[in-house]
């Protein structure tokens, strides 16, 4: 397994981490994602560790907290072998302070995550989204205090825009506080918006990218093709867990090229889609999803080989997106 620096931190992480969005399924939103229980999670973790993948991504809101509980139980007795990332910001309850990145909410959620994960430290703590109501110095000084106390080792952001990330980094620098080392973002061959703003910020500021939903919610696996009925699974189950609307022609054309390259390389469509991401600037890590053991084993096969320059060019040509203003100015 290839290891990379986690952004500009000293921590080295495997290029793949295992996402836990599929763990639990104890509420309607997450049920369509997966229903992995402790026994199955332990098995997925065994396979991951055997293959050099010791990095696990979760969040306080996945399955209403059950994903953290399942991950904690499945890692019991081997916590020291794992690198755990968890998150807060999104809504955890009915009260007005049950969401956001205030000192009140972050400190309460860190304690709750530590308990659910059965650990006394979190390797990476991520703000799940940008909270425009809370002053940045309040969020960042709280995270800084958590790092100083040893409860958190590194901090990251997720789903920020370029300016939100840049402003957060500037405030940390100005106040001498811990800085975000990574940004966790959606990026795939059918969703390349990340490249316009977030990638240049990452390159300029040495912020590593952790890619989420790298297979576009499971669309870039070869099981969704032009003229064929939708197979059972995440996309067919629809709802919010199916992801945003996408241009079907773009998907079919991308899958056609992935299939051509699959024949040339003897790798699967999913492995090629993941390998392409590994060659992109700023990517420190890809958070893979796997509903079962077979999917995990297949996705683990995306590393330790490289697409050729010509294959990458073909994928970039077929997946190219029209720039939005102001990115097209001067780009012609
Ligand atoms: N920061 C954030 O806001 C955020 C948001 C979303 C996710 N995440 C993280 O990213 C992780 C991965 O996200 P994701 O699950 O959406 O990733 P994804 O790779 O885009 O989709 C994974 C889904 O695709 C299908 N799949 C995966 N590998 C396959 C294979 N080899 N062959 C066939 N089907 C395959 C499975 O669904 P089916 O079998 O049902 O088709 C699986 O659940 C999550 O677990 C979570 O940790 C973070």
UniProtKB/TrEMBL annotation:
- State the SUPFAM superfamilies in the record: NAD(P)-linked oxidoreductase (SSF51430)
CDD domains found in the cross-reference section: AKR_PsAKR
**GO molecular-function terms, A-Z:** oxidoreductase activity
* Pfam families on file: Aldo_ket_red
Q: Does the keyword Transferase apply?
A: no
Protein's UniProt keywords contain Magnesium: no
Which residues span the membrane? Answer: none
What keywords would UniProt list here? Answer: Oxidoreductase
Annotated Gene Ontology cellular components are:
cytosol
Domain NADP-dependent oxidoreductase, which positions?
25-319
Q: What is this protein called?
A: Aldo/keto reductase
Q: Which organism is it from?
A: Pseudochryseolinea flava
């Amino acid at each position: 397994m290839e290891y990379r620096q986690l952004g500009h931190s000293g921590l080295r992480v495997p290029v793949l981490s295992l996402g836990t969005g599929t763990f639990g399924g104890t509420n309607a939103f997450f049920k369509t994602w997966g229903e992995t229980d402790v026994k199955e999670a332990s098995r997925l973790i065994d396979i991951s560790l055997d293959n050099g993948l010791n990095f696990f991504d979760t969040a306080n809101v996945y399955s209403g907290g059950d994903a953290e509980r399942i991950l904690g139980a499945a890692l019991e007795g081997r916590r020291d072998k794992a690198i755990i990332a968890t998150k807060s910001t999104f809504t955890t309850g009915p009260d007005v302070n049950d969401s956001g990145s205030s000192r009140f909410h972050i400190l309460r959620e860190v304690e709750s995550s530590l308990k659910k994960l059965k650990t006394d430290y979190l390797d990476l703590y991520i703000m799940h989204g940008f909270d425009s109501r809370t002053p940045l110095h309040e969020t960042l000084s709280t995270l800084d205090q958590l790092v100083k106390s040893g409860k958190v080792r590194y901090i990251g952001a997720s789903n920020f825009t370029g300016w939100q990330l840049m402003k957060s980094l500037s405030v940390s620098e100005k106040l001498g506080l811990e800085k975000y080392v990574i940004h966790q973002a959606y990026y795939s061959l059918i969703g390349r918006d990340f490249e316009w703003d977030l990638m240049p910020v990452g390159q300029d500021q040495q912020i590593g990218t952790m890619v989420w939903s790298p297979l576009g919610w499971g669309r870039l696996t070869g099981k969704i093709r032009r003229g064929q009925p939708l197979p059972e699974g995440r996309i067919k189950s629809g709802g919010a867990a199916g992801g945003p609307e996408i241009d079907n022609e773009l998907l079919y054309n991308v899958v056609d090229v992935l299939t051509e390259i699959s024949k040339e390389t003897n790798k699967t469509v999913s492995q090629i889609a993941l390998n392409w991401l590994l060659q992109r600037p700023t990517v420190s890590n890809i958070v893979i999803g796997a509903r079962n053991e077979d999917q995990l084993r297949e996705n683990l096969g995306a590393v330790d080989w490289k697409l050729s320059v010509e294959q990458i060019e073909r994928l970039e040509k077929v997946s190219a997106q029209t720039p939005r203003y102001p990115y097209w100015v001067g780009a012609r």
